[in-house]
Amino acid sequence: MNIRYSMLIQWSDEDQVFIVSLPEFGEFSKTHGKSYRAAVKNGQEVLELLIETYHEQGRPLPKPNIYSSELSAKRQPRSKPKAHAV
Fold first, then answer.
1. In a domain? residue 73
2. Distances, alpha carbon 45 to alpha carbons 11, 40, 83, in Å
3. Which of 12, 50, 61, 83 is least crowded, fewest Cβ atoms below 10 Å from its Cβ?
């Protein structure tokens, strides 16, 4: 299956696991893993289950967030101004 949805993976100090958020499917679409690799695997499984469930229920899938190099260029941090000798 060619999945084009986003997974945001972040470490949780509180839970001591990697939290996987699936932003296109809403704020409660999350899973986790004790390792980064486990988090990725679990995230992929949840995405597949969500897509399957949407199809079974006849619901339209959310539009995937697509990377845009134009947007990325606009978000680049500005370089720090150079310090001048006094």
1. no
2. 19, 9, 50
3. 83
**Residue 45 lies inside a defined structural domain of this protein:** yes
From 54, 7, 53, select the one nearest 33 (Cα to Cα).
7
CA torsion sign, 27 to 31 to 34 to 36?
negative
pTM: 0.75
Residue closest to 48 by CA, chosen among 16, 25, 80, 78? 25
pLDDT in the model for residue 69? 81
- The CA distances from residue 23 to 5, 46, 53, 81, 85, in Å, are 8, 12, 17, 35, 47
Range(s) of the domain holding residue 24: 8-61
Length of the chain: 86
Section 65-82 average pLDDT: 68
In a domain, 69, yes or no: no
CA 67 to chain centre: 12
Number of structural domains (the chain) is 1
